[in-house]
Description:
The chain is an alpha/beta fold. It folds into two domains: 5-169, 3-Layer(aba) Sandwich (Rossmann fold); 173-283, N-(1-d-carboxylethyl)-l-norvaline Dehydrogenase, domain 2 (Orthogonal Bundle), CATH 1.10.1040. 46% of the residues lie in helices and 19% in strands. A hairpin with a 3-residue loop joins strand 3 (45-49) and strand 4 (53-55). Helix 6 crosses helix 9 and helix 6 packs across helix 12. The chain is globular. The site of ketopantoate has 14 residues, from helix 6. GO terms for molecular function: 2-dehydropantoate 2-reductase activity; NADP binding. One of its GO terms (biological process) is pantothenate biosynthetic process. Its EC number is 1.1.1.169. It catalyses: (R)-pantoate + NADP(+) = 2-dehydropantoate + NADPH + H(+); (R)-pantoate + NAD(+) = 2-dehydropantoate + NADH + H(+). This is 2-dehydropantoate 2-reductase.
Amino acid sequence: MKKIRVAVFGAGSLGSVLGAILAKRNDVLLITRGEHYRAIKENGLRVEGFTEGLFNIPVAEHYPGGYDIIILAVKAYQTEEAIREIKMEYKDEILITFQNGVGIVDMLKDFDVIPGVTTHGAMLISPGIVKHAGYGDTFIGEKSGELTERVFEIAKNFTESGLKTEVVNDIMERRWVKAAVNAVINPLTAIFSIKNGEIWNDDNLRSIAKCMSEELSLFLQKKGINEDVYSLVQDVVLKTRDNESSMLQDIKRGRKTEADYIIKPFSNSKCMYILYKMIKYLEKG
Ligand code: KPL
């Protein structure tokens, strides 16, 4: 299999896990900052859970240019900043975004983008140590829906590296659906400070998730997307039951959340509006 040079821009918890998996067969560079950067540089990246090991992967604070693929894994609200930095070195790299949220692919209009979706769960344990806490599903596809040779080649490489990846012809719809699934799981887990699986263990939370999912399925239906959000939520919470959602991790660390990209797009429904405002309140705390 041909090696690919992959730069993971935004190697936090999920980006680090993806980088570690892909490094089994490819030349990977992790781009991250602060203590996580220093710890990986000094001691390597330790991954626990579904992927295990100590990975000696090169790490940088800035994108140096010269890669085949850039995997964009920064928080949705850091996308503009990432775009500015990548543009300084950009030639014709393929950008694959696995970021959560609505509107990201449009923001990347100046690049050669292959949108993606992943439901893997990841947590930062401490700087330099991440947990692969849920083995989910990964999809990539051309924006146009065309089934090109290059997407199949990339999916084959990722799959052979250990990141099972499927090629789809409806990736833009799937990104909306993933955002809807996040719009249920992330606020509930962040508000109640619980792991993803707890949503399914408790009758009360399951009922709330059902009510939210029904509204989100109706929302998607109006966009021509027919999906049973509730059964997708069930699938993701069960696969990532031991994971803390990215929104819960953000709230715990006192960081901004991705609520504006995950919940706000659906907040014309009363139920989603209330949850959006609850998260915005928690963000202030
Ligand atoms: O995408 C996620 C997130 O936490 O943002 C899931 C798949 C729900 C895993 O926790």
